[in-house]
């Protein structure tokens, strides 16, 4: 066979950092060298790799655009060494506008530029704010005798017929750079999108996806290809960096069998076939990766969190140790008169199981000091939530003081159920820099805690065995802000609450629809009301890992001032 009958394509599933153009270029060069050692002819990188994705309003900065284009030009020159060609994503400013683009380089020069046509503007995406769509669809690029089509991410998701047009223009294979964020079961969605395009074009498609955490978004990798026969040609790992070289062979025997527009087909004869994690493992690893990248990419040496003896802080401690190592986590128990002996023991047992530092800082003096200072102002009023929240705010102040003194980022620990209905204290337990479980409902926190006690995820730095004491999982959850308090004093049972919230938040269902599922109408309307009035709190909450289809912040953008209620 001649060289053009065999094409070895490396997929660079890497973890870039937004704005670190020099670092991303260095990472791209390292991956190309790795691919060259493996005998690759071409390296496919992910969407806007040199900029990092999503770059958001950095794209509006001329100096940033110049730095990205220079990096692309320098990288193109590297290909003069006779090694692999490259397809790499970068923003490019042209007469037609600023485009989400790829540069295709080989032989020391740029042999093609392609611009994204379909700009997503929904959910977490806001590309129409900073990019202009490509002025026209350009055909495939001839790379060493092979006509390669390069649609960019959303170009294969929408209905603008980019792939179909590329096939009609003579493309033999489609290589797609992507920045597709994680949410639960997203891999199945991606596979279906690609299969639809393969059916329409008759062409095999390689889907290269970014890896890593960027603020609230998690890019899970899991790059793959679907062959012209609509079967999975290869599957790369999820949540792990990798440079995988895949071998594609020109198949003349089946000429024209799948698609009359093309006389030949490319078939993958060699590539990885990694196992994709199940639901709990995937969610846990997404939270772990998100916390690790947020801390490391923002330059924090270590983290601190309040360890209360409850399940939310326990799973956050486990995630922190798994993500960063036991030496980078400090936990602090801050007891008050309502803190139970069980909570003291459970917190200590959890810290001991994880091997992290554990300090006890009683909050009686600061709380009583606040109460004393407010005695005159509060005279004649009844004690209630205000006094309870003084405890939470004293704890928040202590954690922030530790953060200021030692440079530790505070990990905040509220789950999605609590954040939904405002069961959290501003400037108290909501204090912090990042929340790894912000998009997990309470019952999902329980499920992930049980999973972690039975498994150690790949790449985790924490120990095996029971790291979240069984008593923490089994006992009734409580904020312990008054005598004998439990969460269910104020909220519906969590299985009921979570189902109602998922209907309201993820599925935008009406009250009548939710009641038809078997829920009490008064409970549903109360939860809906709590969801709306807590918006002002959520606007001030720390960022956190996106796990569901609709997280608070990027996806669900409701007004703070809002009088709408779904009433008959």
From TrEMBL:
L-glutamine binds at residues 122, 180, 186. One of its GO terms (molecular function) is NAD+ synthase (glutamine-hydrolyzing) activity. It is an enzyme of class 6 (ligase). Deamido-NAD(+) binds at residues 389, 418, 537. Residues 7-250 form the CN hydrolase domain. Its EC number is 6.3.5.1. The active site is at 47 (proton acceptor), 116 (for glutaminase activity), 153 (nucleophile). Pfam families: CN_hydrolase, NAD_synthase. ATP binds at residues 306-313, 413. It catalyses: deamido-NAD(+) + L-glutamine + ATP + H2O = L-glutamate + AMP + diphosphate + NAD(+) + H(+). Pathway: Cofactor biosynthesis; NAD(+) biosynthesis; NAD(+) from deamido-NAD(+) (L-Gln route): step 1/1. Keywords: ATP-binding, Ligase, NAD, Nucleotide-binding. Belongs to the NAD synthetase family. In the C-terminal section; belongs to the NAD synthetase family. Catalyzes the ATP-dependent amidation of deamido-NAD to form NAD. Uses L-glutamine as a nitrogen source. This is Glutamine-dependent NAD(+) synthetase. It comes from Mesorhizobium dulcispinae. The lineage of its organism: Bacteria, Pseudomonadati, Pseudomonadota, Alphaproteobacteria, Hyphomicrobiales. The gene is nadE.
